[in-house]
Amino acid sequence: MKISVLITTYCRDWALQYSLSSLANQKRLPDEVLIVIKPCSDESEKVISRFRNLLPLKIIYQNSSGNVVDAYELGYLNASGDVILFLDDDAVAHEEWVLRYERLFNENVDAAGFTGLVYKAHLSNGSLIKTSELFYPKELARGGLHRRPLPELKNYFGYISTSGIMGRKPCDDVDLCKSVLFGGVNMGFRTSLIKDLKLSVLYRKSRKGFWSENIMAYWCVKKNFKTYEVISKEISPIVWHIEHPSSLTRGKGFSSEFWLHYDRVASFWRLRKLGADVSTSRYILALVIMLRRKIIPRLLATLYGLIAKV
């Protein structure tokens, strides 16, 4: 199995060195490391150059107007591996990260993709401190008509509902849970299954690319493959996500909430384009319910999303 690793980066020279070091120290080295870099004024390119003799690097320059979704697409369209693994530029991989993904894909031939555990890490005086605290808590969704899973996801632990929003329910398994709730910080797909997904078209009006990883997983399910969250520490490909205030996706303030909510609103139209059996009435119900919090930016984002659609 040939394995590609994709890192998308923008102005993260301080973190990129930790990500690349973790790849150089893998027990099973990747066969290709694609770095999609959006040029900026920091030292990212110098950091990358230090690893040219340690990793099989392939550098792809992104147009200055592109976002993370465009970067993802550039990456998987240029990948030559049978499997493509995604690692954030501010995340550090466990030394068996590549090896564990390889095992999972070899042992589960019906699986299109996996997403692994993500723990918190932080920097203290230049030293990386890893913790055992989950970066993303697994919060279960409340019930309701707008939370009913799509028919093809009715047995999924992490699912997309008929209203177009995401949901999560209890999982009885101890190792693998069927899920489409993926995170770009730590996930992998069979490359051939996502090459034909025009992700940049679906997200052409987006500023955040929110839920795009879930759309990628759903695309694979539509092809009659399965996607999983790996919840066992013993077999999961693990990464540590470095905590810092400069998240490009999640931020604070009016603008950030507006564009995050736009992606929630637009998910209905994206899913419809992919052939999902989404319900207009349940979509409207979900929109009303989501307006209970942060009403001003969400109301404006809802109106824009309904007009612009995708």
Q: What is the number of E strands?
A: 14
Alpha plus pi helix count: 10
Helical coverage, percent range: 25-40%
Relative strand content: 15-25%
**Poorly predicted tracts of residues:** none
Q: What Rg, in angstroms, do the CA atoms define?
A: 19 Å
What is the H/E string?
EHEHEHEEHEEEEEEEHHHEEHHH
What structural class do you assign from the helix and strand content? Answer: alpha/beta
Strand order of the largest sheet: 3-2-1-4-12-6-13-11
How much is the average pLDDT? 94
Q: What coarse outline follows from CA principal-axis ratios?
A: globular
Q: Sheet bearing the most strands, described?
A: 8 strands, mixed
Instruction: Calculate the terminal CA-CA distance, rounded to whole Å.
Output: 36 Å
How would you describe the overall organization of this protein?
The protein is α/β, with parallel strands linked by helices and 310 residues long. It is 33% helix and 22% strand. The protein contains 10 helices and 14 strands. The protein is globular.
Give the structure's gist in a few sentences.
Helices cover 33% and strands 22% of the residues.
Blueprint (SSEs and pairs):
Layout lengths: L2 E7 L3 H12 L7 E6 L6 H6 L7 E5 L6 H11 L4 E5 L3 E3 L3 H11 L3 E5 L2 E7 L2 E8 L23 E3 L5 E3 L7 E3 L7 E5 H4 L4 H4 L9 H10 L4 E5 L8 E4 L11 H20 L6 H11 L4 H14 L2
List keywords for this structure.
eight-stranded mixed β-sheet, single chain, 14 strands, alpha/beta, 310 residues
